[in-house]
From TrEMBL:
<dbReference type="Pfam" id="PF00881">
    <property type="entry name" value="Nitroreductase"/>
</dbReference>
<keyword id="KW-0521">NADP</keyword>
<keyword id="KW-0520">NAD</keyword>
<dbReference type="InterPro" id="IPR029479">
    <property type="entry name" value="Nitroreductase"/>
</dbReference>
<dbReference type="InterPro" id="IPR000415">
    <property type="entry name" value="Nitroreductase-like"/>
</dbReference>
<dbReference type="InterPro" id="IPR052530">
    <property type="entry name" value="NAD(P)H_nitroreductase"/>
</dbReference>
<feature type="domain" description="Nitroreductase">
    <location>
        <begin position="18"/>
        <end position="168"/>
    </location>
</feature>
<dbReference type="InterPro" id="IPR026021">
    <property type="entry name" value="YdjA-like"/>
</dbReference>
<comment type="similarity">
    <text>Belongs to the nitroreductase family.</text>
</comment>
<keyword id="KW-0285">Flavoprotein</keyword>
<keyword id="KW-0288">FMN</keyword>
<protein>
    <recommendedName>
        <fullName>Putative NAD(P)H nitroreductase</fullName>
        <ecNumber>1.-.-.-</ecNumber>
    </recommendedName>
</protein>
<keyword id="KW-0560">Oxidoreductase</keyword>
Length: 196
């Protein structure tokens, strides 16, 4: 049997948080408010980020603002039926966080590294929300590139909407879902000595 050195206690807590996190789709009120969100964002902003460029910003959308965003997204739908369904999707959680990628021109830090840093921050935020008992899920969102949505949210030239974190309180009774174990053996190539 494979053994590993004893890990510090904190490592166990972190590992449990990572292994038990699940995306939550059924979300009810309440959701975190501005102070808690800023606190969590400060923690999420510690994710790996070459040059600490923080090439991202978030837009929090709650209450009636979700209705107005839903209307903007619905305008981009090709049919009335789809438009109605798209508008309703914006009400699936009490809080939506639009993840806006803001790449900068940089002499040594390419765009792909900045996108990776934004993804790392977002994943860390999702994990932190889950660890605090909030539910959340990252969805691309209906028509994130539609001009109506970009205009409504004030997405600037050169910025990209990377979808939304839908955030709220997990609906009672929707207990934790077991996660099938991933077989990652084929995902690792090891070059060099494995005697360790
Ligand atoms: C950038 C991004 C966009 C996603 N968009 C969608 C989506 O539009 N629809 C969807 O069903 N899942 C989407 N997912 C996957 C879910 O967020 C989630 O990871 C998946 O349902 C697995 O659940 P889990 O996180 O509990 O493993 C997206 C994931 C990422 C990283």
């Amino acid at each position: 049997m494979t053994t590993f050195p004893d890990a510090p206690a904190a490592a166990g807590i972190v590992e449990t948080a990572i292994r038990t996190r699940r995306s939550t789709i059924r979300l009810a009120e309440p959701a975190p408010g501005p102070d808690e969100l800023l606190d969590l964002l400060a923690a999420a902003a510690t994710a790996p980020d070459h040059g600490q460029l923080r090439p991202w910003r978030l837009i929090a959308i709650s209450g009636d603002a979700r209705v107005r965003l839903g209307e903007a997204a619905a305008e981009a739908a090709p049919t009335t039926d789809l438009a109605e369904r798209i508008a309703v999707k914006h009400l699936r959680a009490p809080l939506m966080l639009a993840i806006v990628f803001q790449p900068r021109d940089h002499p040594t830090i390419p765009r792909w590294e900045q996108l990776a840093a934004t993804s790392a921050m977002t994943t860390t935020l999702l994990l932190l929300l889950d660890a605090r008992g909030w539910g959340g899920v990252w969805f691309g969102g209906p028509h994130p590139d539609a001009p109506q949505v970009r205009k409504h949210l004030g997405i600037g030239d050169g910025e990209q909407l990377l979808g939304y974190l839908y955030v709220g309180t997990p609906v009672p009774g929707d207990g934790p879902r077991p996660r099938p174990a991933a077989d990652v053996r084929a995902k690792l190539t090891w070059l060099g000595d494995t005697d360790r």
